[in-house]
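ligand=phosphoenolpyruvate
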Amino acid sequence: MRKKIVAGNWKMHKNAEQTEDLLNELIAKIPTDTDTNVIVAPTFVNLASAVDHLEFTNIKVAAQNVHQAEGGAFTGEISADMLKSVGVDIVILGHSERRAIFHETDALIANKVNTALEHDMTVIFCFGEELKDRQSANHFNVVENQLKDGLFQIEAKDWEQVVLAYEPVWAIGTGETASPEQAQEMHEFIRETVRKTYGNEVADTVSILYGGSVKPENAKEIFSKPDVDGGLIGGAALKADDFVAIVTAI
Ligand code: PEP
């Protein structure tokens, strides 16, 4: 059985008070008996308080990034050990905004993945093609290369700590969603790509999330596809009612 997961990436939104308000709403509204793994990723400065706030709930906390080094002269950066020390053991890596705006390469992301796994963190590994790749029918190649170059250095045993998040860049924050059929086609391709290198057990147990303008209106249909195990949610994760509707759409 694969884990069902809905994760909210809050990006650079919500100050301390707003974080607490949104968490309170989520605590009140997310069913306590859900078998969906619910994760929220507030900004770094609000992680420690979010962990405290959510201590007796079924909502987990993720970081939006981590540095690849153990520590040192890296002004402005945060290490895996620091995250773990405040109770955060999940990290989102490879997000398209990190790749595009902060120039993170597959090689750098691979380093970050290795560091996070060495610290026994769970990695939500994001990847996905740009519009030009899909228009030139190169999207399967791009996705395969991102997986191979950013993730396939890990050992089979490490896959227990990995969640995949397919996020076509053209659908992130644009209101443009991949159709449920496009999502399924790519998720199936991803699972088969994992199978070729790591075998059936890994391929059949890894959760593959879809991300890109998921909303309450389209979540159910996307999540109904056999290889879609949940979602990574951006904009709609910032409103409690929308996020809860998505969580309960699986
Ligand atoms: C994201 O940034 O991971 C994302 C999926 O954003 P949105 O849901 O806003 O498209």
